[in-house]
Amino acid sequence: MARDESSLTVPLVVEEKQRLGRKLEDVETIYSDSTAGTTSSFKTVFHGLNALSGVGILSIPYALSSGGWLSLILLFVISIAAFYSGLLIQRCMDVDSNIRTYPDIGERAFGRNGRLLVSVVMYAELYLVAAGFLILEGDNLQSLFPNMGIEVAGFEIGARQSFVIMVALIILPTVWLDNMSILSYISASGVLASAIILVSIFWTGAFDGVGFKEKGTLVNWHGIPTAVSLYAFCYCAHPVFPTLYTSMKNKHQFSNVLIVCFVLCTLNYASMAALGYLMFGSNVESQITLSLPTHKLSSRLAIYTTLVNPIAKYALMVTPIVKVTKSWFPLSCNNRPLSLFISTAFVVSNVTVAPLRPFLRRSYVAGRSILEYDSCYCPPMFMLHEDFKSSQKIRI
């Protein structure tokens, strides 16, 4: 009798586990579908431009002054390599519809250990970049308003940390947005800010007495490594590409979106680099806004507009981390308060680590230039290489 009971019970237990497993998969699928396939190609262009352009535009003249005029060739080479890597990401996701995130590509390329490595590197990079945005805003606002500070319950908070908290409160509603279509309007503001900065700096050079008198050097071999790292920094948006791809209505247009984004951003970067180098030569600062005459209206407009870029980019850059965190709690797809709590907790954690300013400032650049090569360019190429080898074996 006991044997009969066990024979009846075991299949029921197995079926129950399978049923629960299917339910969990259904919840994850519902969560993925609820945040995908709603964004037009036009709006995705704004996301792509916002991800690629932004903070890097301020350091591009310094990169050119470090490497010389011929280093611009490296800018175009890096942009082509980054563009091709973006196409490989699209191809990886076209090959297997189950691939929805960058770690999925890492798993196909390197196995489960590869997925873990890519996940840790990519999410750590994005987290440090997000913290870097808050630090950058805090530093810039402190330089404009050094005597600002707040006191809460008897505790005095310094100017920099006060501004970090204020900026976080401004950014927080954008992180709450789950709809990439709505978020595109915030990305559009970042794109507009980059255009205003370029026009303002051109105006400063052409009409406000600075001029374009510097000739610069043809090539500076000692500065090439610095130039290459800063050029690569400008194109570190690959962790966001899978999110943009899955959010599109017409995914076949993703390659066209990449073409538009990379062409416009590269022209923008090259123009800014040439303008800054012609205006200030080898004396250009690490951020071109530090070289501008602050008594000119156009210069002030450029300086104040730079404050918009990190705010506009923050939500887009942290979307992959927030999404994967929410996927750990399947009920969050139908529980708005829980979803808001997860997003808010992420921003609060970023504000908490912002006082680690010296470490995070170094990690901000290192995380976006060095780790970009390993975690963002390699997985798509290795995955397609493995698929190619598999197809060759099948043919044999």
TrEMBL record:
Its main location: membrane. It comes from the Eukaryota. GO terms for cellular component: vacuolar membrane. It holds the Pfam family Aa_trans. InterPro entries: AA_transpt_TM. Keywords: Amino-acid transport, Membrane, Transmembrane, Transmembrane helix, Transport. The keyword Zinc does not apply. The chain crosses the membrane at residues 44-63, 69-89, 116-137, 157-175, 182-203, 223-245, 257-280, 338-360. GO terms for molecular function: L-amino acid transmembrane transporter activity. Residues 38-360 form the Amino acid transporter transmembrane domain. It is found in: Membrane. This is Amino acid transporter transmembrane domain-containing protein.
